[in-house]
Design goal:
- By secondary structure, this protein is α+β, with helices and mostly antiparallel strands.
- Helix content is about 15%, strand content about 20%.
- The chain binds iron/sulfur cluster (SF4).
């Protein structure tokens, strides 16, 4: 036997006393707004679902807002009536935004608003408990993990670090460094005689990033003291060789001497 599909109970038609109670609802809105001219025209009425009819009838009247700064908002006045009674009571009065209302941007936690480079001297930027760039030092995928499946051999334990960079955090860092000034697509790298990975001045990072990034130790290189990608490179590469061009004859005397008269034969 097939089941009966679930459906939302129908909203009962509001009783006449509720739909007719526009002026009492307006009076409630004016009282909340503080002045009659802050409540505009009546926009409509919507019956509210409150359950079985014997519990009562509830309806919301809406009025345009004339509050300065609240363009597109409206007053919503919810009124109710006990079945069988004529008396209507006001449940609540609220100011609500409509489709065209000006709204403040969605709240963004402060730590998500900061951008790289925003940190100044003296600022403190604590990492959150759930920062995806960090994992406890004893968990999987720690950079110190070195067994075949990548599970922990937590060498960090005892060294005072409770958290280390997660796989995701390390991948983000490498992507950031490689796409920047010291990555393979920079103009310097494209003209380089060879990549950093083959340069004697390249000091690879320890851990799983060893093959991807390192520090440059060449005082004459633009990347000296910076993290450079393995496939970056510069003209100060240790294997760069100077191609000596063959000396050409240096002519110091003029080929056509105009300092003397030519003696022409008769
Ligand atoms: S000298 Fe140039 S090629 Fe060598 S590591 Fe430094 S940046 Fe890379």
């Amino acid at each position: 036997m097939g089941g009966v599909p679930a459906s939302t109970p129908p909203v009962p038609s509001p009783a006449e006393p509720l739909t007719a109670a526009v002026e009492p609802a307006r009076a409630a809105a004016v009282e909340t707004a503080g002045a009659a001219d802050l409540v505009g025209e009546h926009l409509g009425a919507t019956a509210e679902a409150v359950g079985p009819a014997e519990l009562g009838e509830v309806l919301t009247h809406t009025f345009a807002s004339r509050l300065p700064g609240y363009v597109g908002w409206h007053w919503a006045v919810t009124i109710a009536r006990v079945p069988g009674e004529e008396r209507v009571t006001v449940d609540e009065v609220v100011l609500l935004p409509g489709d065209q209302a000006l709204l403040a941007p969605a709240w963004v936690p402060w730590h998500e608003r900061l951008r790289p480079g925003d940190l100044s001297v003296g600022d403190v930027l604590p990492a959150t408990e759930d920062d995806p760039r960090l994992v406890p030092a004893y968990t999987v995928d720690d950079d110190s993990a070195d067994d075949a499946e990548g599970r922990v051999v937590a060498r960090e334990i005892g060294l005072g670090r409770e958290r280390v960079m997660s796989r995701e955090g390390r991948a983000e860092a490498v992507a950031r460094w490689s796409s920047g000034e010291f990555g393979p697509t920079s103009p310097m790298a494209r003209q380089a005689p060879g990549p950093c990975a083959t340069c004697g001045f390249w000091l690879p990072l320890a851990g799983s990033l060893r093959g991807m990034v390192g520090a440059c130790g060449n005082a004459y290189a633009p990347g000296d003291g910076r993290v450079v990608a393995a496939d970056y490179g510069c003209g100060a590469h240790s294997q760069a060789t100077l191609v000596v061009v063959q000396d050409t004859e240096v002519v110091t005397s003029a080929r056509y001497d105009t300092s003397e008269y030519d003696v022409l034969a008769d």
